[in-house]
Write a structure and sequence with these properties.
The protein has 177 residues and is mainly alpha-helical. 67% of the residues lie in helices and 0% in strands. The chain has nine helices and no strands. The radius of gyration is 16 Å and the shape is globular. The two termini are 26 Å apart. The model has no long low-confidence stretch (mean pLDDT 97).
């Protein structure tokens, strides 16, 4: 049970968005821009970054939700997501994208943990300044989302399959629907 009475039984952020609709639209607007807006990183790659941060933050709902969104958009599905987040090279995830994951992990530790070395490694792998910027912003936003979801102790289904239907809705229509 959540830390406050949300008046609903939806999982994770869904219950929170319904509880406080005034904050729902701006939060989902931010997610839509970061994860679906124009970018040289694919939607699947950006969802992978969100899943990576959420997994490191031990936010089960956000990890499984965004891992599912990534899996639905990357060749190889969850096998690719699992391999990439374990640091195992996989053909579906470029060296550039793999080089952005340490930046996202550093942001989760603290902004100053983003060192010139990991930024230079990402540049050497082909990441642009805009892609580095967006990685930092996605990671920072997901630290907030993770703390929102877990700070109010929302519930999260444990099975990946429970996230597929909502994942298809997000992939097809976005976060503002």
């Amino acid at each position: 049970m959540a830390r406050i009475d949300l008046g609903r039984r939806e999982p994770g952020i869904q219950a929170l968005l319904g509880y406080r609709p005034q904050t729902a639209r701006p939060l989902m607007g931010l997610a839509d821009v970061l994860l679906r807006g124009e970018s040289t990183l694919s939607r699947g790659e950006r969802e992978l970054i969100a899943a990576h941060v959420s997994r490191l933050n031990d936010c089960r709902f956000c990890y499984l939700a965004h891992g599912t969104h990534a899996a639905l958009q990357l060749d190889g599905g969850w096998t690719t997501v699992d391999a990439a987040l374990a640091g195992t090279p996989t053909p579906s995830v470029t060296a550039k994208t793999r080089s952005l994951l340490p930046i996202a992990a550093a942001v989760r530790t603290g902004g100053r943990a983003v060192t010139p070395e990991i930024v230079n490694d990402a540049r050497a792998a082909g990441a642009t300044d805009l892609e580095i910027h967006d990685t930092v912003l996605i990671a920072a936003a997901f630290c907030m989302f993770n703390r929102y979801v877990d700070g109010l102790d929302t519930w999260a289904p444990a099975d990946r399959e429970d996230y597929v239907a909502a994942g298809h809705r997000i992939v097809d229509r976005g976060y503002l629907t």
